[in-house]
Design a protein that fits this description.
Blueprint (H helix, E strand, L loop, with lengths): L2 H14 L7 H56 L6 E5 L6 E5 H5 L2 E3 L6 E3 L8 H14 L1
Antiparallel strand pairs: 1-2, 3-4
Helix pairs in contact: 1-2
């Protein structure tokens, strides 16, 4: 038995008791029963609205999942190349770790996506022995 039925049952019991309607206690009791009926009606309306809202949220969730699937599928197909090398860069200010490709690193600097700090990449410390050895190989080929 739901709350609407219980409230109606209580109202029926009071009506069936053949009480004096002018008695103060009976008037208070009737007012409480009327209030109970209104509250149960409001609760019933809220339950119905909640059920409808849950159905709508489920539909939105399904639609969003479909859109996400399409979006990320397109993103992976268009932008991710398995031959690309990605490098891990950690911001010294906030500690956020991001991944970027070689072309982004070669630009020399970027802004941290979390805190906005300018991250600069200095390549002056790199060993140029690879370039020197290729030059010496070229010199040997000329002889």
């Amino acid at each position: 038995m739901g709350i609407n039925e219980k409230a109606a049952y209580i109202k029926g019991m009071i009506d069936g008791m053949d009480l004096d309607k002018n008695d103060k206690t009976v008037r208070v009791l009737n007012a409480v029963v009327d209030l109970l009926s209104e509250v149960t009606e409001k609760v019933s309306d809220l339950n119905n609205a909640y059920d409808e809202l849950c159905e709508q949220v489920d539909e939105i969730d399904e639609d969003l999942a479909s859109i996400e699937e399409d979006y990320y599928e397109d993103f992976e197909d268009d932008y991710v190349d398995e031959d690309d090398n990605f490098y891990e860069v950690t911001c010294p200010s906030c500690g956020e770790t991001t991944y970027m490709d070689e072309n982004t690193l070669l630009e020399g600097s970027i802004s941290c996506p979390k805190c906005g700090e300018e991250l600069e990449f200095d390549y002056s410390d790199l060993d140029d022995s690879d370039d020197d050895s290729s030059d010496s190989d070229d010199d040997e080929d000329k002889e």
